[in-house]
Amino acid sequence: MLEFPKDFLWGAATSAYQVEGNNDNCDWWEWEKRYGLKDTSGSACRSYELFTQDFDIAHRLHHNAHRLSVEWSRIEPQEGVFSEEEISHYQEVVRALRERKIIPVVTLHHFTNPLWFSRRGGWQDAKACFYFVRFVEKIVEALSDQVRYWVTINEPMVYVYQSYVLGLWPPQEKSFSLARGVTTKLLNAHVQAYQAIHRLYEQKQSGPVFVGIAKNMQAFVPCISTAVNRCAAAVRDYLYNYELLLKIKKRKAMDFIGVNYYTRNLVEVRGGGMGHFLLDICQEEHSHLPRNTLGWDIYPEGFFQILMKLKSFNLPVFILENGICTLDDAQRWDFVLSHLQSLHRAISEGVPVLGYLYWSLLDNYEWDKGFAPRFGLVEVDYKTQQRTIRESALKFAEVCHTGKVVSL
After folding, report:
1. What is the pLDDT of residues 33-48, one digit of tens each?
2. Stretch 363-381: mean pLDDT, rounded?
């Protein structure tokens, strides 16, 4: 039996655009139609209206924490114009969690941008940090009496990689120089938001506040152990997993490290040049690991390895996302068990972990992949919006309730 700390935070996560529906004033809404995606987000899970139902489910499942995001494009629909109606809505959402004794963990930027911000150049614009911090100050002021845990930006390197390296997500640029520039903007935005949040709480004497960033982390593993593959894996590990965190730590702008972990990257350099060195992966089906429905390897050992490397930061770690898309719910539970085993092992070796949030509470809109990937502890019928609690959710609920994993 594995026993976790008594004050451990257990729960699940969602993001506004993926579950709320009808976020028609942001760049993704416009882009998914212009790009011609097979699935557009539409009503998504209708959680904008059904959030109390969703939180009732989380409460029933013994979750004591829930990660959600606020949609910037709702709160600031035009540049410098803030919607008091939408701010009141998110106050009601956070209150609903507190009433169910669920601790809110609030993300301020989860991939999507207001249309006006995007049309000004988005994160390439010289005033991007100013705009973001102004929004942060507005919403934090409104929620500070209810929220202690803030996540400034979700997966900045995923955003940069998808939008500016691969050029797949909006704004579909493809430039290493732009990628580095946007990465710097996101770093500065985080630091300035961190400082603004702490300043506001000090002014209001609102008690303790904890601000972090949600960092997607992957295990980089050489496919065949050649010198170039080993070197490429080490460089990618540093650039993707740790460089940004080290810069944030140097600027003393992080109270905890938020970790999102799903899979590994099987490195196989197939040509000359920086692009091949930084991007090439195995194309020969050398991996024999089980996979999720998106083809991602299931690799809990990498989870442990990453957590052990984070030990040197001397900061609390918060698992903000860890989950699997699968149509086989038994596989979902196996995934959770194996990753909780790795997590417990890291804790027992001295890694200070605040909590574990599964991705996701609900099946939801998985960005450019549409509605097919099923990540949820709770199944969603998108035609009727009926929620059905999966068996894996009930098993995880027992862990949340007892803080113990009885069998592996």
Report:
1. 999 999 999 999 999 9
2. 98
Nearest to 122 by CA among 180, 182, 74: 182
Residue 65 to residue 54: CA distance in whole angstroms = 13
pLDDT in tens, 313-345: 999 999 999 999 999 999 999 999 999 999 999
User: What number does CATH give the domain 2-405?
Assistant: 3.20.20.80
Cα distances (angstroms) measured from residue 323 to each of 134, 191, 263, 289: 33, 28, 10, 16
SS3 23: coil
User: In angstroms, rounded to a whole number, what is the distance separating the alpha carbons of residues 261 and 405?
Assistant: 20
Q: Kindly state the DSSP code that residue 333 receives in the 8-state scheme.
A: H
Q: Give kind and range of the element (H or E) at residue 191.
A: helix 176-204
Note the pTM of the prediction, 2 decimals.
0.98
Report pLDDT for 34.
Answer: 93
Cα–Cα distance measured from residue 53 to residue 240, given in angstroms and rounded to the nearest whole number: 37
- Domains of the chain, residue spans: 2-405
